[in-house]
Each structure stands twice: as structure tokens, then as C-alpha cells.
Design brief:
Elements (H helix, E strand, L loop, with lengths): L2 H13 L4 H14 L2 H6 L12 H13 L3 H4 L8 H13 L3 H14 L6 H7 L1 E6 L8 E6 L4 H8 L15 H16 L1 H6 L5 E7 L6 H12 L2 E5 L11 H15 L3 E6 L2 H4 L8 H15 L8 E7 L17 E4 L5 H11 L11 H6 L6 H22 L7 H10 L5 H13 L7 H10 L4
Parallel strand pairs: 3-6, 3-7, 4-5, 5-6
Antiparallel strand pairs: 1-2
Length: 449
């Protein structure tokens, strides 16, 4: 507000000193301009007793707080309005009454999450400790943030292992049935399989486009088997010194054998088991040979150890892994179909503020080729739209159909490039019919997936 307008409004207030709305506007303008004393001089005596003047008292309290008069501002805050409770939290913080301020802050944010202020929250979570100084030295006041307690440190250093099951994964029904029959049942009924001299364990290679749930499927398989899950990272194996990579890989297999039943999962397995014909380094060939030896070597007993691996480029994995006894089961993990996409979107929206007008069937129809990761990005983008609208309006806005329509314009399927490459391998390099599942998927879902 410019000077001329402010002066005119002050003149109007002088002519009508009881105009509460006009006085409230003037106080807000003074607060915005940083002219705290000018605004406070406009307040008439006894305004605290005026009825139906909550907005005026709120503006006056903001001016008093900004002017360093928090103690005078506190009695002006009344009621359970979220904005008023947030201001009360600021006033209490200025008075160093942090516990009371935390209560008011939580109540305000619970009622209206758009009011969240992390700077204020961090200020409310500090502890002040006075250390008496030694003789001749001043006292020390130490202020520390209490957010990270001992339990938080433990959580960061030792992440909680979440157990997944097939119920946590949307879609992939046929694949889950296949895994249940060929992989999980031997763990659930070991006596029956021993009767037929079938070993529990073996190797399964999952392949498909990025983001379609290969890692989640591996974790869910371990959860269904009630087995210990070892997620083997590439960095856990590869080493710059000759022979160290093979030694680390052997140690990992030994640990899994000692804790059987166990599931070992190798993500991006082509980094450890790539085609030996494509590398000029003897060290890479030795690592592949060690991997093959660990899977079915003469001196090793992998009974009760299931070896799961995932890759986006199955054509880069050494062919020796595919023979029976190693990765004898190769399973294609496709992008989710339309019913699966609808189910996954509904699952991803659980626990979020959601309007009733979201057309999940429309979204599923218009996300052909989307992976699970793409669908998650779609939901996150729609949530960003709702958060932005909440900040602009100053009140929480639920995720609605309009936010999803806007997100659809921004998010694109990331599986199409992979499917094009896989189609070429399936048509022109399909030795032993190893990519028939890809061709069947493209034939069935090529249109209107």
C-alpha cells in the first residue's frame, strides 16, 4: 500500500473511529510496511474488550509481536482458529515457553497443514543448557536441537527391514502365481519336495523394463518364503584389487548358506555376470566364473538358498547363467496392464488427502505403457499440484481430478524405449526362444494396454 492510500485511510478512520474493518486493514498495511509504531498508535484504548473483533485483535497481536511486545500480544489471542494458534505459538516461542508453543503449533498444523513452518518448529525443539564457567571464565549457554534423539540415530545406522508380501504389490497376478508354484511352495512344503528329491532353492532371473517392480517382487518373494533376505549391492562385491571381488562374493554366499533358508538378491546382475565375450579384462571373466561356481559348484551346498537376480538388459548376461541349475527360471516382469494400473493408483493414494472426483478408470486408460515407477511419479506430481494450491490459498487442498489431469501432461512413460529394444532382440536374436514372453506381451498389449 502506498503512502497516499495509507494517509487517506487514516483520515477515513479518524472520521469513523469505530470502524473495525477499516482499522484491521490499516494494521495489516502497517505490518506489511514494517511501520509497527504507526500501527500501534492507531489502536484505541479498550479495543481488547470489543466484541466480534477477532481479526482486529489478531492483527494487533502481530504488530505487538513484531515490535517486541510479546507479553502484551499474548492476551489478544483467543479461539481455536489455526492461524490464531500458529501466531500464539510464535508469541510463546518469543517468551521462551517452548512446551506450550509446541502444543499450539501442532494443533494449528493438524487443522491446516498449509501453515507448517519448519523454521519455527526447529526453534521450538531446542534445549538450552547453562554450563557454569571455570574461575575467571564466563558462563556458557549451549543451544542444541533435540530432533535427532538416540532412537533416530539407530534408525539411520540400522534401517528397519520392512517385510513385503505379494499383497503389497499391485498387478503381476500371473507372475505371482508362477513364483508361488515354482519358488515359494518348495519353502513351504520342504518335506514333500524332499520326498521327490527336489532341492529347495535354485536361481531365478527377473528381467523387464526399469521401474516395473523387479526389486519389490524379490523382496515379496523372500517375505512369502519367510526367509532371510540379502540384498547384494554391486559395491558389496566389486573391488579394485585382483582377487578381492571373488573373495567377497564367496563370503556373501557363505553367509547366506549359514542362515538358510535365505534369499540372495542381485540387482543389475549384468554388472557381475556380464557376457565374458564382451570384455577384454580377465578379472571380469574370473568374477563371472566365480559366480557360476558359487551357484552350483562341486564344493558348495546351496540347499535352502534361493538366488534371485534382476536385470534390465538380459541380452548382456552371460549365457552360461541360463542353463538348468543356475538361473534355470527366467521370468519376464512386464509393465502393469490397465486393471493393475488402476489398482496401483488407488493403493498409492491411500493416506493422502483425496477428493471424490478422481476418475481412476480414466487415469488407468491414459497411462498405457507406464511402469510402477511412472505411476508413482504421476501421483507425486499430482500431490505437488495440490501442495502448491494449498500454499497459494492458505488452506489444505485435497488432490483432485484436476491435479491428475495436469500431472498427465507432464509425466511420460519410460518403458517405451526398453520395449522397442526388447522387441528387436525378440524378433532377430531370439536364440532358444528365450524372449517369447516379450513377443507375447507385445502381441497382447501392443494396443490399448
Amino acid at each position: 500500500m502506498d503512502d497516499s492510500t495509507l494517509d487517506q485511510l487514516e483520515a477515513a478512520l479518524a472520521a469513523a473511529p469505530g470502524n473495525v474493518a477499516l482499522l484491521t486493514v490499516l494494521l495489516g498495511a502497517c505490518l506489511e510496511r514494517g511501520e509497527h509504531a504507526r500501527g500501534l498508535n492507531l489502536l484505541p484504548a479498550g479495543f481488547e474488550q470489543w466484541p466480534d473483533a477477532s481479526a482486529l485483535k489478531l492483527a494487533a497481536a502481530q504488530l505487538l509481536l513484531a515490535d517486541g511486545q510479546a507479553l502484551k500480544a499474548l492476551p489478544l489471542i483467543d479461539g481455536n482458529d489455526p492461524a490464531a494458534r500458529l501466531l500464539k505459538a510464535r508469541i510463546l516461542a518469543a517468551l521462551e515457553r517452548f512446551k506450550e508453543a509446541q502444543v499450539e503449533y501442532r494443533a494449528a498444523v493438524d487443522a491446516n497443514p498449509a501453515l507448517e513452518d519448519m523454521a519455527l518448529w526447529r526453534r521450538l525443539n531446542v534445549s538450552v543448557v547453562d554450563f557454569p564457567g571455570a574461575e575467571g571464565r564466563p558462563r556458557l549457554r549451549v543451544i542444541s536441537n533435540d530432533d535427532t534423539d538416540q532412537s533416530e540415530v539407530v534408525r539411520l545406522l540400522v534401517p528397519e527391514n520392512e517385510t513385503l508380501t505379494f499383497d503389497d504389490i499391485g498387478g503381476l497376478d500371473e507372475l505371482k502365481k508362477t513364483i508361488h508354484k515354482k519358488i515359494i511352495l518348495p519353502y513351504q512344503k520342504p518335506g514333500l519336495f524332499q520326498r521327490f528329491r527336489k532341492k529347495v532353492g535354485g536361481g531365478v532371473l527377473l528381467y523387464g523394463p526399469p521401474g516395473c517392480g523387479k526389486t519389490m517382487l524379490a523382496r515379496a518373494t523372500a517375505g512369502e518364503c519367510k526367509a532371510t533376505f540379502f540384498n547384494v549391492a554391486i559395491a558389496d562385491v566389486l573391488d579394485m584389487y585382483i582377487g578381492e571381488s571373488e573373495r567377497k562374493l564367496h563370503a556373501l554366499f557363505e553367509q547366506a548358506r549359514a542362515q538358510a533358508p535365505a534369499v540372495m538378491f542381485f540387482d543389475e546382475v549384468e554388472a557381475l555376470g556380464g557376457k565374458r565375450a564382451n570384455t577384454r579384462e580377465s578379472t571380469s571373466s574370473k568374477l563371472v566364473s566365480q559366480f557360476l561356481s558359487e551357484m552350483d559348484g562341486f564344493t558348495h551346498d546351496n540347499h535352502g538358498v534361493l538366488i534371485l537376480a534382476a536385470t534390465n538388459v538380459p541380452w548382456s548376461v552371460d549365457s552360461a547363467f541360463r542353463r538348468p541349475g543356475r538361473f534355470d527360471r527366467v521370468l519376464f516382469v512386464p509393465p502393469p496392464d490397465r486393471p493393475a494400473r488402476e489398482s496401483m493408483l488407488k493403493s498409492m493414494m491411500k493416506g493422502r488427502p483425496m477428493a471424490d472426483d478422481i476418475d481412476f478408470a480414466f487415469l488407468a486408460k491414459n497411462t498405457s505403457g507406464f511402469s510402477g515407477a511412472d505411476l508413482s511419479e504421476l501421483v507425486e506430481t499430482a500431490a505437488d499440484e495440490a501442495i502448491e494450491a494449498s500454499i497459494e490459498s492458505g488452506a489444505e487442498q485435497s488432490i483432485c481430478d484436476r491435479h491428475f489431469k495436469q500431472a498427465l501432461k507432464e509425466v511420460r512413460a519410460t518403458t517405451l524405449e526398453w520395449l522397442t529394444t526388447a522387441r528387436n532382440y525378440a524378433r532377430y536374436a531370439n536364440e532358444g526362444n528365450q524372449y517369447d514372453e516379450v513377443l507375447a506381451f507385445l502381441d497382447k498389449h501392443g494396443k490399448g494396454r
